[in-house]
Amino acid sequence: MQNKTPEEGVKVSAQESSDQTLTLADIKPAMKLKGRVTKLGLFGAFVDVGVEREGIIHISMLKQGHVNRVEDVLQEGQEVDVWVHRVDREAGRIELTMIRPVQLKWKGIKPGLKLKGKVVRIEKYGAFIDVGAERPGLVHVSEMSSDYVTDPSDVVDVGDEVEVSVIDFDRKKRQIRLSMKEPMFEVEADEEADEEEPTAMEIALRQALQASDQPEAEIQSTPPPSQETDRKELEDILDRTLKHRVRTSS
């Protein structure tokens, strides 16, 4: 079996990590790719991502925070996950980053939004969850469980994948408040609240109808004509009142 050169091995590995061979026209900003580091330089690293041109990661794009030397983060031959930062198709240049771009923008955040995230930091007052936004959101200790929690580390550990929902957020302060509790919905209460309250006239008409249905009246096999006529008139008035409410409400 013929041995492959290091360059061929790099290209095959990078291409196999994708569903199909990519061209420069397929590359778009924020696209996630897998590749292998082919060369380290003073100002960054070159990475083969299976395209006709290698991409370059500037030293400032290796990770959050200051990096003194590229060698402190990467080594030649290392496989890495990268995102496309910028593409210059005319120059055939692909700029990459190892810092995950913002996936959840502020305009997409709203109360009640359910998200999946990773625990990135734990404090005494709660846990910070990376949900793909500009900054991690905070789950306060009181929002970690329906039971009383004294220590957040009793519920989650750094690196745990959790499901959360947005309570509220502040764009100016770049803060997101999250909850791990299941939302409680009172459906029956909402349905009852949607029912319209009867008017004073409707109450009076219903009471008059109920009064005509007393046991004494039921004992009589044939009610007096005047009593039967009065009841029919009351029912007609109540029916017209209810129909009028339907028309005005619609």
Describe the structure.
The strands form 2 sheets. A 5-stranded mixed barrel has the order 1-2-3-5-4. It has a 5-stranded mixed beta barrel with strand order 6-7-8-10-9. By secondary structure, the chain is of the alpha+beta class. Helices cover 24% and strands 27% of the residues. Mean pLDDT is 78; it is low at 1-19, 185-193 and 216-221. The protein has helices at 6-16, 187-194, 200-211, 215-219, 225-249, and strands spanning 32-40, 44-48, 55-58, 79-88, 93-97, 114-123, 126-130, 137-140, 161-170, 175-179. The chain is built from 5 helices and 10 strands. Helix 3 (200-211) runs antiparallel to helix 5 (225-249). The protein folds into 3 domains: 6-97, Nucleic acid-binding proteins (OB fold (Dihydrolipoamide Acetyltransferase, E2P), Beta Barrel); 106-179, OB fold (Dihydrolipoamide Acetyltransferase, E2P) (Beta Barrel); 196-249.
Strand content: 25-35%
The CATH homologous superfamily name of the largest domain equals Nucleic acid-binding proteins
**Secondary-structure element order, as H and E?**
HEEEEEEEEEEHHHH
Q: From the alpha-carbon coordinates, what is the Rg to the nearest angstrom?
A: 35 Å
From the 3D coordinates, which CATH architecture of the largest domain would you assign? Answer: Beta Barrel
Question: Which properties best describe this structure?
Answer:
disordered N terminus; elongated; 5-stranded mixed β-barrel; 250 residues; OB fold (Dihydrolipoamide Acetyltransferase, E2P); alpha+beta
Topology:
Blueprint: H1 6-16, E1 32-40, E2 44-48, E3 55-58, E4 79-88, E5 93-97, E6 114-123, E7 126-130, E8 137-140, E9 161-170, E10 175-179, H2 187-194, H3 200-211, H4 215-219, H5 225-249
Parallel strand pairs: 3-5, 8-10
Antiparallel strand pairs: 1-2, 1-4, 2-3, 4-5, 6-7, 6-9, 7-8, 9-10
Helix pairs in contact: 3-5
